[in-house]
Amino acid sequence: MSRLVIVSNRVPVPDKGGIAPAGGLAVALKAALEEQGGIWMGWSGRSSGEQEPQPLAQLQQGNITYALTDLTDTDVEEYYHGFANRVLWPICHYRLDLAEYGRKEMAGYFRVNRFFGRRLAPLVKPDDVIWVHDYHLIPLAAELRQMGLKNRIGFFLHIPWPPADVLFTMPVHEEIMRGLSHYDVVGFQTDHDLENFAGCLRREGIGDELGGGRFTAYDRIFKGGTYAIGIETAAFAEFAEKASTNKTVKKARESIEHRSLIMGVDRLDYSKGITQRIDAFERFILANPAQQGRVTYLQITPKSRSEVPEYEAMQRTVAEQAGRVNGALGAVDWVPIRYINRSVGRHILAGLYRLGRVGLVTPLRDGMNLVAKEYVAAQDPDDPGVLVLSRFAGAACELRGALLVNPYDIEGTANAMARALSMPLEERKERWKTMMDHLLEHDVSRWCRDFLNDLTTRDQCG
Ligand code: ADQ
């Protein structure tokens, strides 16, 4: 069996006791690596200042080698904060207004990908299969091909792929499209993303579809496919059930008392639609005065990318907005919104999801959204809560039992909250079961297997 080489911007390195950071993606990819043996390479998250980074730090755990490199301050600024997070992230989330192009940042992005390629190439054996993850590393295959590597190389994009009119506002869109053509399999979260990608190829005559999921562009043939990422459904459901005795979960349950809990859990990011969601909650309370004092909205939002000015500003905006709504609607014995800026352990999170009568997942645009899937997996089968889900999350293509909303329509989202809170038990159970059956069958291990099968089956691709 050939070895597997995974490359991602950050690597979930196990601690000294061999425990890897939790999370479905890390668990599934680690399992695949353990089965086949291999390497997981990426950025250490550290800077070497302006010094050339030391050689790769390698950590062996069983038959997995974790290979990490530092980056210089300039690299971190231009590649990571610059092009990846201030250009590709907003563009892929349809936010042209937030994209800040700069020639320096673009050059830094391609330079760091070349640097990753140079550090990785000496570790790769001829029959290794390479799987590259996410928007930070699109040009990596092209760099490896340039160095003569003929291995099977696959790419999976965790975030949405935008339509041509959006992508082509980026001055280097051609280089990005060309970069993708050097993979053997390019994977997206949804059919809609894949269609957008095909549209980008067609629009400027860059390439075309050959049928059977095969594409041609820049004299290469490759497979383009949809691989909706899942979670470790069965394990997550078990965490949630067991968490009912957890101290923090118990305290949360007692503090809610007789009230219904609406749960929101997101990284702090403009794509997640948190401010629109708070507006919708306010609208819901104003339109349903009988709910005053009878419902609590818990929003758990760890800070992310706080070095980027837009994220810092967003942190202030959300906190002020939650404060304003609490000031306007709250009572001496009722705080309508509890807003927490902290990360929570996965077991506790699972227990909190289970307490939620409503799971409110309303991103303006999201590749998949694992929170939606985790919320469903965590529910009590005899008394499940209701998922209110944005139609612009990739998960909406699969979770048919959710109440789908347009997060830009504040009144519509408020109405969905009211409907979710009054939904009869039989309907809740029916909707939940449809979603849970799907999630059990399409879990993260299956996602991993499906992608790797396509990548290693030669006639799938060029
Ligand atoms: P993200 O944008 O990070 O992922 P998401 O899919 O929701 O979004 O995953 C977030 C993860 O972080 C979930 O597993 C969640 O449990 C965890 N999390 C969030 N808040 C937390 C908190 N307060 N404490 C602890 N854990 C918390 C990107 C794409 C998504 C895509 C995923 C996977 O943007 O669209 O679904 O990758 O492909």
UniProtKB/TrEMBL annotation:
Record-level GO BP terms: trehalose biosynthetic process
Keyword Acetylation: no
Gene3D superfamilies (alphabetical): Glycogen Phosphorylase B (3.40.50.2000)
Domain of life where this protein originates: Bacteria
Enzymatic reactions: D-glucose 6-phosphate + UDP-alpha-D-glucose = alpha,alpha-trehalose 6-phosphate + UDP + H(+)
GO terms of molecular function: alpha,alpha-trehalose-phosphate synthase (UDP-forming) activity
Pathway: Glycan biosynthesis; trehalose biosynthesis
Residue spans crossing the bilayer: none
Record keyword Transferase present: yes
E.C. number(s) listed in UniProt: 2.4.1.15
Binding partners and assembly: Homotetramer.
UniProt cross-references to PANTHER family, sorted A to Z: BCDNA.GH08860, TREHALOSE-6-PHOSPHATE SYNTHASE
Task performed by this protein: Probably involved in the osmoprotection via the biosynthesis of trehalose. Catalyzes the transfer of glucose from UDP-alpha-D-glucose (UDP-Glc) to D-glucose 6-phosphate (Glc-6-P) to form trehalose-6-phosphate. Acts with retention of the anomeric configuration of the UDP-sugar donor.
Family that this chain belongs to: Belongs to the glycosyltransferase 20 family.
Name under which the protein is recorded: Trehalose-6-phosphate synthase
Gene source species: Sinorhizobium americanum
